[in-house]
Design a protein that fits this description.
With 395 residues, the chain is of the alpha/beta class. The chain has helices at 11-21, 38-43, 45-49, 58-66, 84-93, 108-121, 135-145, 166-170, 185-188, 191-201, 274-277, 281-287, 310-322, 335-351, 363-380; strands spanning 2-7, 28-34, 54-55, 74-77, 97-101, 125-128, 152-159, 206-213, 222-230, 236-242, 250-256, 259-264, 267-272, 298-302, 355-356.
């Protein structure tokens, strides 16, 4: 039995704790929690009344572990973003497995350090990217990566169904602040989208981004973002998101050499070219003398089953790997990738230029980390030069 502590019992932490408490994860037992109050405490009363320890802080929990007062095997981290690295590192140093809520942290160096400590400890490191459990996204991944329709040409994703009222941001002292939250929609709502983007389409190599801070709400971080991506093979893409558009949509278009795939409203629509063109589109494009022909494509529609228990699947995969009988849905090493995307997008917007996304494990990554963190610290201290005359680094 994997004795598990949930650190940070707020909206998501309470969900994870309740799932474990209710016996929905085979081989996992809820053994401790931190900072649980109000309705969240009521949800966990069965465990609390049965004697499960409740700690005011993560530091108190780890001290209990180190003093042999608490025996656990794993932690689930669901705290504000900045704390993820510190908590994960301390857990690994105590020989504990770690499942971390998204994102890994605020800046990519945090994710890199977490990966390093996980390897040193030999313990399991997983991420809560539950969107990868959805049959819709699994089938989309398989269609794009099968090679059946050729290479990637273009990606367009408009995801504006993250609408939030003003009081959402005032409901917590850490929401929508550079100092405590670390960012806005890119870091808070969109890590799932950015993770899916790189998982399905591969990592872009450069990005140009335009973030609008406090555009729809009285906040200091971005609530409206437009991103342009480029891939190594020349493919391009746009990603548009906001928390102030209503009614919002979530429409992903992926153009491949021999098909267009549209993902929207829980369905996949595939427009194939081969039947209409009698061969490859590139060959037709070079040889056709029909100057104004509109290519309609041959369309099919797929409605994958819905995944009713995505978080349960993530927790079960984590438990299975801890017990040596399976694998995490998403390994901890994936957390750095979505952070590199969001960090590069922020840096591009702040510096008003296109930014290369560094390859993991290179000197360029270390320089990227340094430059991003320099900007972020100035945002946190509110000393940013709004005229954009700050140090821009090498072009």
């Amino acid at each position: 039995m994997i004795k598990t502590a949930v650190i940070g019992v707020g909206n998501m932490g309470s969900k994870y704790a309740s799932i474990i408490q209710d016996g929905m994860i085979q081989g996992m037992e809820l053994s401790a929690v931190t900072r649980v109050r109000g309705t969240y405490r009521e949800m966990l009363l069965p465990s609390i009344e049965a004697g499960m320890p409740v700690y005011e802080t993560a530091a108190e929990l780890f001290t209990a572990v180190e003093n042999k007062e608490l025996s656990i095997d794993a932690v689930v981290i669901a705290t504000p973003h900045y704390a993820h690295e510190e908590l994960a590192v301390r857990a690994f140093k105590n020989g504990l497995h770690v499942l971390c809520d998204k994102p890994s942290g605020v800046y990519s160096r945090q994710a890199r350090i977490m990966e390093t400590e996980a390897v040193k400890s030999g313990r399991v490191f997983g991420m809560v990217f539950n969107q990868r459990t959805l049959p819709l996204h699994i089938q989309l991944y398989e269609l794009v990566n099968s090679g059946r329709y050729g290479a990637l040409k273009r990606v367009n994703w408009v995801v504006t169904d993250w609408y939030r009222p003003e009081q959402y941001y005032t409901s917590s002292s850490w929401h929508a602040t550079w100092d405590k939250d670390g960012g806005g929609i890119l870091l808070n709502q969109c890590p799932h989208n950015l993770d899916l983007l790189q998982w399905i389409c591969g990592m872009p190599v450069r990005v140009q981004c335009f973030c609008k801070e406090g555009h729809f709400h009285d906040i200091e971080v971005e609530d409206d973002v437009t991103v342009y991506f480029e891939w190594e093979n020349g493919a391009t893409g746009t990603f548009i998101s906001s928390t102030g558009d209503a009614p919002g949509i979530n429409r992903l278009e992926i153009s491949l050499e021999e098909a267009l795939i549209v993902c929207e409203n829980g369905k996949l629509r595939i427009g194939e070219l081969v039947q209409e063109m009698g061969g490859k589109e590139a060959d037709y494009r070079k040889s056709s003398t029909d100057y104004f022909r509109k290519i309609k494509g041959t369309w099919t529609e797929i409605t994958p089953e819905k995944e009713e228990m995505p978080y349960e699947k993530v927790l079960q995969g984590f438990a299975d790997e801890c017990m040596g009988v399976g694998k995490c849905i998403v390994q901890g090493t994936e957390g750095r990738k979505s952070l590199l995307l969001s960090n590069a997008a922020y840096l591009s917007s702040w510096e008003k230029r296109m930014v290369n996304i560094p390859n993991i494990g290179t000197d360029e990554e270390l320089e990227f980390e340094r430059l991003f963190e320099k900007w972020l610290e100035q945002k946190r201290s509110r000393q940013i030069n709004l005229n954009g005359s700050m140090y821009h680094g090498s072009r």
